[in-house]
Amino acid sequence: MALKSGGQFYDEQETMTVEERRTYLNGKVREAVDHAYHNAPSAREMLDRAGVQPADIQAIEDLEKLPITRKTDLIELQKTNPPYGGFLAIPPEDVERIFISPGPIYEPLHSDSIEWFARSFYAAGFRKGDIVINTFTYHLSPAGVLFHEALRDCGATVVVTGTGNTDIQVQTMLDLKVTGFVGTPSFLLTLIRRAEEMGHDFRRDFAVARAWFTGEPLSPSVRKTLEEDYAINTCQAYAVTEPGGALAYECPEKSGMHFMDDYVIEIVDHDTGKQLGPGEIGEIVVTPVHNGAWGIIRFGTGDMSSYITEPCPCGRTSNRLLGIIGRTGDAVKVRGMFVVTRQVEEAVLGIEAVSRFQVVVSREGQRDDMALRVELKSEDVGRDALTAELNERVQNVCRVRVDRVEFVAPGSIPEDQPRLVDQRKWD
């Protein structure tokens, strides 16, 4: 089906008619549910508890009959039924890759190809001849490797940098005349600012012409800065680790993110699980239909959004997601990684000296800031050593570094206050 002829579209699937897409996805839903039921014990138990047989799921609308599995559920299931929580749907020896995300959550992958990510990069303009710096981690999580292979499928040359090492990244971009960036918006801005501190005129001295973002929202102000001040064309994608990666992506029109046809994406009422229509705000729920190893059905992302069905001038015909407007539960994404209340709780309250805590996420400049507020049982404790221990424990479970630990007076954190507070505003 792939086109990849140098035109606007990666493959013919992007331009299916509405009826063709509905037929295709309904068929994929039936296959995915039947496969999970007969091969993944936890999926079978879920359907049995709901009183549903695979034959009862004939179309996307029928998914409403099934409950939603959330990140916290998956963490607990993998603890009680390791390593995959009963959702592995192929023989273990057939698993090609295993990724690890915070929790930990072990994610098996088996597929003839992982080219589905390439649609997103292709729509953003990446082609053979591009030299692309991939600043997502290649360690544990799937992002670095999956995005790398998708870029290669578009023909681009990938510079394997991963995260951090700002000065090295800047020098590499300069030396190799890098034309593309893959990462978070805040990190690209960090690299640009650092290049300017080193005496460079970024627009003149560097060759970066396009950037692809996920992991954090691309605010209008940041997009304007990158496109107008630095002549970098920007595109963003919506990605979720647990169901397998990039779920929706921008085209050159930049008027919403096109649904990937390798997933069934629902917008639902968080409390009832009922599907909502175009323009209605609800939780994004995902069923992967491309990865036979993973018997996950109706994974609740916790992200809130809405979608539109109007035709896009670009010619792609899938529905479009209208950005992420917030979170439903007790997990937030910080610098591209989820921070889950229960994980922080296990890390922090495991220290005898701590009586209460609160994580406060804010936005400083163009960077996420995470502060850990802590109440102590006694003032008779070495704060420097405790700070180091808290930093290490939180980073080990969340893989996000705390920017600062603030020791507050007893009673400063009311018992009825949430332990994870997101104060960010995306202006």
Structural summary, described in words:
This protein is an alpha/beta fold and 427 residues long. The chain has a domain of 89 residues: GMP Synthetase, Chain A, domain 3 (2-Layer Sandwich), CATH 3.30.300. It has 11 helices and 22 strands. The strands form 5 sheets. A 9-stranded mixed beta sheet has the order 5-4-6-7-8-9-10-15-14, sandwiched between helices. Strands 1, 11, 12, 13 and 16 form a 5-stranded mixed beta sheet that branches. Strands 21-20-19-22 form a 4-stranded mixed beta sheet, with helices on one face. The longest helix has 22 residues. The model has no long low-confidence stretch (mean pLDDT 91).
How are the SSEs ordered, and which strands pair?
Elements: H1 18-39, H2 41-49, E1 69-70, H3 71-80, E2 97-101, E3 105-109, H4 118-123, E4 131-134, H5 143-153, E5 157-160, H6 166-175, E6 180-183, H7 185-197, H8 202-205, E7 210-213, H9 220-230, E8 233-240, E9 245-250, E10 257-259, E11 263-268, E12 282-288, E13 299-305, E14 307-308, E15 320-321, E16 326-327, E17 331-334, E18 337-340, H10 341-348, E19 354-364, E20 367-376, H11 383-398, E21 404-408, E22 420-422
Parallel strand pairs: 1-13, 4-5, 4-6, 6-7, 7-8, 19-22, 20-21
Antiparallel strand pairs: 2-3, 8-9, 9-10, 10-15, 11-12, 12-13, 13-16, 14-15, 17-18, 19-20
